[in-house]
Design a protein that fits this description.
Elements (H helix, E strand, L loop, with lengths): L14 H17 L2 H10 L6 H15 L8 E5 L1 E2 L13 E5 L2 H13 L4 E5 L9 H10 L6 E6 L7 H10 L2 E5 L4 H8 L3 H16 L7 E8 L7 H13 L5 E4 L24 H7 L13 E3 L5 E2 L14 H4 L1 H6 L1 H7 L40 H17 L5
Parallel strand pairs: 1-4, 1-9, 4-5, 5-6, 6-7, 7-8
Antiparallel strand pairs: 2-3, 9-10
Helix pairs in contact: 1-2, 1-10, 1-14, 2-3, 4-5, 5-6, 6-8, 10-14
């Protein structure tokens, strides 16, 4: 029987409860066994009745030690062609590499059958695919079948009203890349890029407001660690408010591709560095046993599949979706190898008391050995973030131990 995942256990979601939960995760990593961790939580006046706490820690430990073969996101890189030349991009650029419509439909159909959470259509820039309208036709055909379809785009090229409406009816979400304010965005993407993209977002909303269940517009921002919390974030939030859409989401800058010379600290997406400690506690956070590798699949235009967009070396290739079939790739021993790995399979990490608050960091980042269980070269930033979260959790409970 599979261990219940944290979301399946009934939890209160308030600041104090989230703080206790985070500290419980930390204590389990520090004291290893649920009985001892429960007693220490009681001694430190963090949690009450030790037997009740112990039972919840048992569930948590089972979750952390259980391999769960569930699939989150299928990333389909439909083209490596792009109409911009962004300075921070880690993706390949090759105008000749495009996924055929037939292969695209085969992958979408099978992903729906396998109950992936999301199909994320990306590139390159997917809207410059020569058969983009036919890709949308496929998306519309399989929409509302249990798997969300997401178009990830720079939204930079020229669109007419008919195409906006076609996009609105074909996918569930449109995630647009915006890199802060106009100056920062144009510095990365070229003069005039910000105005054109924002104008397209405004036009899209005006053209599609009459369409029921039209694709939701969202903003994604790739931020360096140095700009995680500054006026650029305020600019992004003002734009999302102006457009009447959800707050922007932030992703780390990977020191890969054109940004390979960027000096960025090793992070883990689950630590949500774009939020300050109190914001994270208010939102709630679950234990991190991995960076997410083995949950998603990244497919290149020609079908080669990888467990991580940032780890696309020959040793990480787990098959070809078009020649082997998506289901066979997912059932392969190679995919299982990635899915079975966790922070506890990294020799250097498995004794660290902070491991369930960092997940071992990104497996591709700073991995000089091209080995799934290689320890991170430098995890000081991961530990520092974990310590800040622990301190914030204690402060919210007014404990000073």
């Amino acid at each position: 029987m599979n261990a219940p995942v944290p979301s399946q256990v009934s939890y209160r979601n308030d600041l104090a409860s989230n703080a206790r939960r985070l500290l419980a995760v930390y204590y389990l990593g520090k004291y290893i066994t649920p009985p001892i961790a429960a007693q220490e939580l009681y001694n430190d006046k963090i949690c009450g009745d030790p037997p009740t706490t112990q039972q919840l820690l048992v569930y948590l430990q089972e979750y952390l030690h259980t391999v769960q073969f569930d699939f989150n996101n299928l990333y389909l890189h439909v083209t490596y062609n792009c109409n911009l030349n962004c300075s921070h991009c880690f993706a390949d650029t090759d105008p000749k590499k495009e996924m055929t419509v037939q292969h695209f439909e085969e992958a979408v159909k099978k992903a729906v059958d396998l109950k992936f959470s999301d199909i994320r259509i990306t590139g390159g820039e997917p809207t410059v695919h020569h058969q983009f309208k036919n890709l949308l036709r496929v998306c519309e055909k399989y929409r509302n079948k249990g798997t969300s379809t997401v178009l990830r785009t720079n939204f930079y090229r020229d669109f007419d009203e008919e195409e906006f409406c076609k996009i609105a009816r074909s996918v569930d979400k449109i995630v647009v890349s915006i890199d802060g304010d106009e100056h920062t965005h144009d510095k990365r993407r070229g003069a005039g890029a910000y105005k054109k993209t924002v104008n397209n977002m405004v036009d899209y909303q005006q053209c599609t407001q009459h369409i029921p269940d039209s694709a939701a517009l969202l903003i994604n921002c790739v931020k360096s660690f140095a700009t995680q919390n500054n006026e650029l974030k305020e600019s992004m939030e003002k734009l999302s408010f102006r457009l009447g859409i959800a707050p922007p989401r932030y992703k780390p800058l990977f020191p890969l591709g054109r940004a390979s010379k960027a000096v960025e600290p090793l992070i883990c997406g689950g630590q949500l560095n774009q939020l300050n400690e109190r914001q994270l506690l208010s939102r709630g956070a679950f234990p991190l046993k991995t960076c997410g590798i083995g949950k998603n699949l990244y497919v290149e235009p020609e079908g080669n599949a990888y467990p991580c967009v940032a780890w696309r070396t020959p040793i990480a290739c787990i098959g070809n979706v078009f020649t082997d079939g998506l289901e066979q790739v997912l059932k392969s021993g190679q995919f299982a190898v990635f899915a079975e790995r966790s922070v506890d399979t990294i020799q250097q990490c498995k004794g660290c008391e902070f491991r369930y608050l960092c997940g071992g960091g990104c497996r591709a980042w700073n991995n000089e050995e091209d080995e799934i269980n290689a320890p991170p070269v430098n995890c000081e930033h991961l530990q520092e973030r974990a310590k800040q979260l622990i301190q914030a959790a204690r402060a919210s409970l007014k404990t000073d131990k």
